Structure formats: C-alpha cells, structure tokens
Amino acid sequence: MKLTYAGLKDRDAFLNASIALPSYDPEKLAETTAASPEWVHFGIGNIFRIFIGSIADDLIAAGDMTSGITCVETFDFEVVDKVYRPYDNLALCVTLLGDGTSEKRVVASLGEAIAARPEDAAARQRLNVIFRDPGLKMVSFTITEKGYALKNAAGEYFGFIRQDIENGPAKAAGAMALVTALLFERYQAGRTPLALVSMDNVSHNGEKLRGAVLEIAQAWLERGYVSDDFIAYITDESTVSFPWTMIDKITPRPSESVQAMLSDLGVEGMDIVITDKRTYIAPFVNAEKPQYLVVEDSFPNGRPPLEKGGVYMTDRDTVNACERMKVTVCLNPLHTALAPYGCALGYTRFSDVMRDAEMLKLVRQVGPAEGMAVVKDPGILSPKAFIEECINVRFPNEYIPDTPQRIAVDTSQMVGIRFGETIKEYIARDGSAEKLVGIPLAIAGWLRYLLAVDENGNAYELSPDPMNEELQEMLKDIEIGKPETLRDQLKPILSNARIFGSDLYEAGIGELIEDMFRCEISEFGGIRKTIIKYLG
Predict the structure, then answer these.
(1) 401-412 pLDDT, tens digit each
(2) Could you give the CA distance from residue 181 to residue 173 in angstroms, rounded to a whole number?
(3) What are 294's strand-pairing partners?
(4) Rounded to 10 degrees, what is the CA torsion of 299, 116, 234, 316?
(5) Which pTM value belongs to this model?
(6) What is the chain's alpha carbon radius of gyration, rounded to the nearest angstrom?
(7) Of 31, 216, 316, 494, which one's alpha carbon is 20 to 30 angstroms from that of 453?
(8) In this structure, how many other beta carbons lie within 10 angstroms of the beta carbon of residue 279?
(9) What is the 3-state secondary structure (H, E, C) of 379-446?
C-alpha cells in the first residue's frame, strides 16, 4: 500500500488493513481547492493534519464543503518537501485508544501545499492569487506561540522582523509579515472581508494575532509602504476579524511503534522525518481521541459549517472562559505540575508519571482541590467532566507516546498563566494565597528539576527553555544532600512577577515554597518525602 492518489486506488488493501479511505475523489478535490480556495491554513504540522484536517475531511465527505484546505508553511519547508508532496498531500491519521487498539484513516482534505520560501517568487504569486480571491473565507493558524512574537525579552524586534518591516510587503518572509502583506493584496483587490483564526494553544490567541498584524502594518505605514485606508480595513473587525479560539488535543511526535505497526500492515514509506529545524514529522500522525475546539463565531465573509464537525461555535467571552478553564485549571497546570517532577524521578513516559501514587496526589491537589475552587464554568464545557477525563482517561493512556521531557519545554514561559492566575484568584478572594499547597509544591518541583540531577543522582538534560541558563546560574551553588547550601538563591526567582505574574512572597507562599524546596534537596529521595509530608 502506498499513500498516494495512485496507491489509494487499491481500496481493498487499505480496507483489509482497517484503514478508512475518503468517500470522495481526492484528486478532484485538489483541483477544486486550487480553483476555488475557501480556507487557508498556516503551520501545517501534526495537530493540524489529524485535528483540523480531519474536521475538514468530515465536512467534505458529508457534502458540507466542496473544496479542501490550502496548506502553507512559512517556517520548516522540509515538511512540505518530505511529507506532503511525496504523498500527494495525504495524511494517515492514527488515533490511539486506551485499550491498545487504534483507529486509522486517510485524510485527503489537504488539497494544496505551499512552501512559502522567501526566494520562491512562484509560491508568493500563488499566495497573492489565493488572497485576492473573494471566495476565500478564513485563514487559520497553528504556528505555536513563538510564531506571533515580534520582539525579544528586551523589547527589541527580532532580526528577521526588523528586515520584514524595512523591506515592506513585497519581500515579506516571516509568517506575520507575510500574512499582513497578503491582506494588503486582498485590500488592493477589492477589500473583501476575511477571518483570521488562530488555533494555537495560546491565551487570547486572536488578540495576539491581531496585535502582530496591526503592528507590522503600522510600521509599514510609517515607511510609506501602505496607506491609512489599509490600516482602517484590517482594524475594522467587521471586515477583517480575528476570532478567539480554544484548542485541545494531545498530539505527540510520531511514534516508532506506530510506524512499525503501519509497516507491518503493508503501508510503504512510513519513515519518521527529523528536519534540519528539529521538526519531528511523518506521513502519519498519532494522537489521542479526545479533542476540543471552541471558536468565536465571527466570520465576515462566511465560513464552513464547522459545528457539524464537532466545533463549538460561540461568543468571545465563552471562548475565553473555556481557554482559562483549560489553561489555568483543568489541563495545562496539571501537565506543568507533573512534567518537571517526572523528569526528576526518572520517568520517560508521561503515562507512567500518572501511575505514581505521589504524583497522582499532587495532580489532584493542584487541579480538583485548588484550581476548581476558583474556576469559572464556561457553560458549554463542564470543568469537572473535563478535568476528570484528563486525570482518569487522557493522561494515563499508555499508548500515547508522550513524555514529561516534551511537556517540560518552556516551563518558565508557562507558570505565570498556569499557576499565576489561580494564585491571583486566591489573593482576590482571600487576601493571600497561603491556603495553597499543591501549587507551591509544583513550583518547588520545577525549581528542583532545574538542578538537572534526578533522585538517583544521575544528571539529565533540561528541556529547552529560554530562561534555563539564567535560572541555573542562580541555583548553581545548591547541592542535593546539603540543604544548608540553600540560602537566598530562590528569592529573586520567586519574587519575579515577570515569571509568576506576582511576587510570591507578597502572595503569602514564597517562604512555603522555600521550605518545600529545602525538603526536596535534603537528600536523594527527598521528592517523595516532601510530597508525603505536605499531602499525606
């Protein structure tokens, strides 16, 4: 079996391997997508293909969409070169169930793929044509939080952003500048409305996307590249909208066990690719079954009937409540509480962390006990049902090849939202956060993790984080087994509102975190001792 248009013609082989195939003609759909583009997506990696691509696939199969998605990559062009074009833009999506079985389907909704290399004039011209088409309804994004960033920690433009600003729309290269330039093309072609929909796991994602686009456009206005009328066009959300969304689906890197399973079934060419930019991708995608997408229903040029694909369509306030529920209480804080501890305890599978009795106590304290006390119910999703599904179904799924090391990436950038917002809620309600125990333990665990030595004395590599070097320098004199080496090293960290959203000493938990950390470094084995001491 080959994952190509020609290979799909051997339908019996795929069906005998329990791989579901599109009910429509993928080649005809690709032609329609190219001729009548309605939906463009930037950032065409794993979660896009198995989640957003599957939604579109279902709508096409039901007759609710007549064209597919135009897929655009602005960062890692090898993705297009190695897993899109050789496979006719098809994706083999594998859903990993908790009982060890899987559901497999070929998704063919990815009708066109464009590697938007800055030097590729033909690719840029193709994008110009697509954005000038009045039938284009929506542009969506899964480019990660970094994709929207224009400035570094010092508030200075990144070099490539500075170049994009100075060079103007015609030579735009980065994602945000390119999108702004393509909006300028649309403006010049008749000012047709459009929705730009961030589907990234980022708080207030639509606001961040809008802010980046407007900032680049304003810089171009100051340099004479665009007009005031263009600024008015993209500022008016009744013309160009930036809906907010909440997205959730655990989608790990491609698994070698899934690759082997597909190869054993007879599917050819399922090699996992690691690109030069360290993207892990393959012709297949593996993920869990649960998935949630909540979207603000603001589409000035119309939209596909996304609700028929399981998308919750609602207003901005409800999207925000869903996002806060997930990011500050029901999912992300649980991940961030467990991942650093998982690394320090020597685990390499997140599902194994969930089977650790002390870790389960911790996660139940952080989420159901402390977070749920201040969570806002968004109405369309039940916080209680959501968090129990995470703890009892999603996180313990041993067939999801997720790791604490992956989840621990960029923790310094996450704790302010994932823990800091709940801390603020306790301060607002009680005057301080001193009633908290689980969240302080989670923060102490992250600091213990930064020592980069596990409970058996083995060194490990920290997951990538922009503050690793700075934080490790602060903690360099602390030694496990010598609690006296802890003096005042934690104070500049725990008092840093840039990290946590507030000064944790003023919040009433700074000294508690110091005590917990001191207990954890008192000996090898101190982590369990500390969890038991504070949680019983």
Answers:
(1) 899 999 999 999
(2) 10
(3) 246, 312
(4) 40
(5) 0.89
(6) 24
(7) 494
(8) 18
(9) CCCCHHHHHHHHHHHHCCCCCCCCCHHHHCCCHHHHHHHHCHHHHHHHHHHHCCCCCCCHHHHHHHHH
Q: Identify the segments of the chain with pLDDT beneath 50.
A: none
* pLDDT at 413 (0 to 100): 87
Tally the residues of the chain: 536
DSSP secondary structure code for residue 134 in this structure: T
Separation CA 365–CA 376 (nearest Å): 18
Write out 312-364 in H/E/C secondary structure.
EEECHHHHHHHHHHHHHHHCHHHHHHHHHHHHHCCCCCHHHHCCCHHHHHHHH
Cα–Cα distance for residue pair 446/410, rounded to 1 Å: 11
pLDDT of residue 203: 82
Per-residue tokens: 230:
């263009």
**What residue type is 431 in one-letter code?**
G
Angstrom distance (rounded) from CA 330 to CA 497: 23
For residue 310, what is the enclosing H or E element? none
Exposure pattern of 283-297 as b/e (b: 16+ CB <10 Å)?
bbbbbbbebbbbbbb
Task: Identify the pLDDT of residue 202.
Answer: 82
Give helix 357-364 / helix 438-449 axis angle, nearest 10°: 130
Under DSSP, the state recorded for 369 is I
Tell me the C-alpha distance between 72 and 60, whole Å. Answer: 20
Pairing mode, strands 194-198 and 273-274: unpaired
H or E stretch covering 240: strand 240-241
pLDDT recorded at residue 276: 95
Q: Which two tokens stand for residue 115?
A: 């590697």
Predicted confidence at residue 34, as pLDDT, reads 97
Amino acid at 187: Y
C-beta of residue 17 within 8 angstroms of C-beta of residue 267: yes
| Cα torsion 283, 71, 170, 215: sign | negative
The SS3 call for residue 378 is coil
Q: Which residues pair with 296 in a beta bridge?
A: 314
Q: 269 near 164, Cβ under 8 Å?
A: no
Residues 331, 334: Cα–Cα separation, whole Å: 5
For the record, the structure tokens of 357 come out as: 């009795």
End-to-end CA distance of the chain: 55
Nearest to 464 by CA among 522, 410, 534: 410
pLDDT score of 153: 66
The answer to whether 445 touches 437, Cβ cutoff 8 Å, is no
Query: Which residues share a beta bridge with 287?
Result: 95
Beta-bridge partners for 194: 240
Whole-number pLDDT of residue 401 = 86
What is the per-residue pLDDT across 105-135, written as a single tens digit (0 to 9) for each? 999 999 999 999 999 999 999 999 999 999 9
Q: Using CA atoms, how far apart are residues 368 and 382, in angstroms rounded to an integer?
A: 13
Q: What are phi and psi of 70, to 5 degrees?
A: -85, 120
Residues 312, 61: Cα–Cα separation, whole Å: 20
Quickly tell me which residue has 């994008």 as its tokens: 127
320 within 8 A of 244, measured Cβ to Cβ = yes
Distance of CA 343 to the CA centre of its chain: 21
User: Could you give the CA distance from residue 376 to residue 174 in angstroms, rounded to a whole number?
Assistant: 37
